[in-house]
């Protein structure tokens, strides 16, 4: 599991450690890790040209000290001081003593074999300031290595409130910062290397799961299992107009670990033709047999209101997606008030905007603004609806009403294809029916769906939602190892 801590958490941990270590120890550790990563990135250190961009805080100090270490190994190191009057004095002295020099020549950026971005780290607020902005647009020859955080990216949220410097590699100290895991910030970070500087950290604010975390959690039948004990998932999706959504949600559900899939709705004929293993009925959730979780909304069209009301009235976990979310936004959180079982909402940013309007009574915010602030959006929705929220998009974020947040590290933009969300909804519902709690079900579903999308688009080929569903067993296999 990758763990990310907020600036406040990092600073508290740092204070504890600083109180018992000689001054400068942490910065020396950080600089040593940074210089070691740079040395690995350069074909050879001796004779390489390195440019340090140094801001006014300790982030600049780290970069200058690392520059000094590289200069001692024979690199030709130049430093641009973005705030010369407030530069980290000890860092600059170390660099000069090691033979490095200060420059004001922006052309050094394009000539450097490696650039160290020490403009601003966890103390940064707002995008790059005007004096640093030109560097974001300059041609580069070698890799840009961000010190702790790419400058201009908000470390706590991944928001990029202006211009930021795109890195090829980020060397993060002590822990990931949420902004390194969540787009748009994550897309500026490149490959993230973690350097241990000895911090003792609390529970992380954000988690990103990996194969081993998931493997421990995926349901598997035991000798005592039968199809009902494995869980039955109900799918209330599709309509005469959108039968395909039903087929795709069922395709995801059949690969999600439940023992049986029960379909309730207008597309029963199409569903059973494609998947004869499905139990089908043409009415709504209330008239269907027992299930352990409902998925309601994909392609439900005009039937969404009725299907949603019936599913929400049931005592089992309910996943609301697509047209079900549009319907839920009309009533707002009140529709969930009487529920005794958990609810999982799976909006994309357009649906998230409608859900937020359902809370505030005001016009929906712009979906692009919500995409730029993914963590905050997922958290706000989870708190307002008292439901677990899986916010889809370039980084899928999952937020539980109690405050836990996970971000999904798998996936590919090729998943932005019609119907792939329906597959995800069915898959997540199946995991809910198999007994996972909403946070785990959503985490596992996003992870497997993302892996399947990558597998199906391997080599850079377009995928269809059907192919994503077909790749799900392979994704399970990869996770299980
Ligand atoms: N914590 C740890 O455990 C360890 C931390 N370490 C390192 O320290 C870093 C944190 O250092 P820090 O606290 O000095 O803050 P930092 O990121 O340098 O920025 C503050 C300065 O930047 C300025 N500034 C603000 N916004 C800006 C912008 N948009 N664009 C430009 N400038 C901007 C702001 O100026 P002001 O607003 O006052 O004008 C202020 O002077 C951390 O990321 C890591 O690298 C390691 O050495 C070891 C262990
Ligand atoms: N830029 C992107 N990068 C990665 N994944 C994306 C991107 N855009 C969309 N996705 C993923 O594609 C799927 C699309 O779902 P959705 O928007 O509900 O589509 P549909 O309604 O057509 O099924 C989601 O899993 C989402 O996370
Ligand atoms: K930086």
From TrEMBL:
It comes from Kitasatospora kazusensis. (6S)-NADPHX binds at residues 58-62, 148, 245, 299, 348, 422. PANTHER family: ATP-DEPENDENT (S)-NAD(P)H-HYDRATE DEHYDRATASE, ATP-DEPENDENT (S)-NAD(P)H-HYDRATE DEHYDRATASE FAMILY MEMBER. It comes from the Bacteria. SUPFAM superfamilies: Ribokinase-like, YjeF N-terminal domain-like. Its cofactor is Mg(2+); K(+). Its EC number is 4.2.1.136, 5.1.99.6. Residues 10-205 form the YjeF N-terminal domain. Binds 1 potassium ion per subunit. Pfam families: Carb_kinase, YjeF_N. Catalyzes the epimerization of the S- and R-forms of NAD(P)HX, a damaged form of NAD(P)H that is a result of enzymatic or heat-dependent hydration. This is a prerequisite for the S-specific NAD(P)H-hydrate dehydratase to allow the repair of both epimers of NAD(P)HX. Bifunctional enzyme that catalyzes the epimerization of the S- and R-forms of NAD(P)HX and the dehydration of the S-form of NAD(P)HX at the expense of ADP, which is converted to AMP. This allows the repair of both epimers of NAD(P)HX, a damaged form of NAD(P)H that is a result of enzymatic or heat-dependent hydration. AMP binds at residues 392-396, 421. K(+) binds at residues 59, 117, 151. Transmembrane segments: none annotated. Homotetramer. The keyword Transferase does not apply. It catalyses: (6S)-NADHX + ADP = AMP + phosphate + NADH + H(+); (6S)-NADPHX + ADP = AMP + phosphate + NADPH + H(+); (6R)-NADHX = (6S)-NADHX; (6R)-NADPHX = (6S)-NADPHX. Residues 210-479 form the YjeF C-terminal domain. Keywords: ATP-binding, Isomerase, Lyase, Metal-binding, Multifunctional enzyme, NAD, NADP, Nucleotide-binding, Potassium. In the C-terminal section; belongs to the NnrD/CARKD family. In the N-terminal section; belongs to the NnrE/AIBP family. This is Bifunctional NAD(P)H-hydrate repair enzyme.
């Amino acid at each position: 599991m990758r763990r990310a801590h907020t600036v406040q958490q990092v600073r508290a941990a740092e204070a504890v450690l600083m109180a018992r270590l000689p001054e400068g120890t942490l910065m020396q550790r950080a600089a040593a890790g940074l210089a070691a990563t740079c040395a690995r990135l350069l074909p050879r250190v001796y004779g390489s040209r390195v440019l340090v961009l140094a801001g006014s805080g300790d982030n600049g100090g780290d970069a200058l000290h690392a520059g000094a270490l590289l200069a001692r190994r024979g690199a030709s190191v130049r430093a641009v001081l973005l705030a010369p009057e407030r530069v980290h004095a000890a860092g600059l002295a170390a660099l000069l003593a090691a033979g490095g020099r200060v420059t004001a020549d922006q052309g050094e950026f394009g000539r450097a074999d490696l650039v160290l971005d020490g403009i601003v780290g966890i103390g940064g607020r707002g995008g790059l300031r005007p004096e640093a902005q030109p560097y974001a647009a300059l041609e580069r020859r070698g890799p840009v290595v961000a010190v702790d955080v790419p400058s201009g990216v908000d470390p706590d949220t991944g928001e990029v409130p202006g211009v930021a410097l795109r890195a090829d590699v980020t060397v993060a100290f002590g822990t990931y910062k949420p902004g390194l895991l969540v787009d748009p910030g994550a897309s500026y970070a490149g490959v993230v290397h973690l350097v241990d500087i000895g911090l003792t950290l609390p529970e992380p604010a954000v988690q990103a799961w990996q194969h081993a975390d998931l493997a421990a959690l995926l349901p598997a039948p035991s000798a005592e299992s039968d199809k009902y004990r494995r869980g039955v998932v109900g799918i209330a999706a599709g309509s005469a107009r959108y039968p395909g959504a039903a087929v795709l949600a069922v395709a995801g559900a059949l690969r999600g670990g439940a023992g049986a899939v029960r379909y309730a709705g207008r597309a029963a004929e199409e569903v059973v033709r494609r998947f004869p293993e499905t139990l089908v009925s043409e009415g709504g959730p209330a008239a269907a047999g027992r299930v352990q979780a409902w998925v309601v909304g994909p392609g439900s069209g005009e039937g969404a209101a009725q299907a949603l009301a019936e599913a929400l009235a049931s005592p089992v976990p309910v996943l609301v997606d697509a047209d079900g979310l549009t319907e839920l936004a009309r009533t707002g959180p009140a529709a969930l008030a009487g529920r005794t079982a958990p609810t999982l909402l799976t909006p994309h940013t357009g649906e998230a905007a409608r859900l937020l309007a359902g809370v505030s009574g005001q016009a929906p915010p712009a979906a692009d603004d919500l995409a730029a602030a993914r963590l905050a959006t997922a958290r706000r929705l989870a708190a307002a609806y008292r439901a677990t929220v899986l916010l889809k998009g370039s980084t899928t974020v999952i937020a539980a009403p109690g405050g836990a947040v996970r971000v999904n590290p798998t996936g590919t933009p090729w998943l932005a294809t019609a119907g792939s969300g329906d597959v995800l909804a069915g898959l997540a519902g199946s995991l809910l029916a198999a007994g996972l709690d909403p946070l785990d079900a959503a985490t596992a579903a996003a992870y497997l769906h993302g892996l399947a999308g990558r597998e199906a688009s391997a080599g850079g080929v377009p995928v269809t939602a059907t192919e994503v569903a077909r790749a799900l067993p392979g994704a399970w296999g990869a996770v299980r190892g």
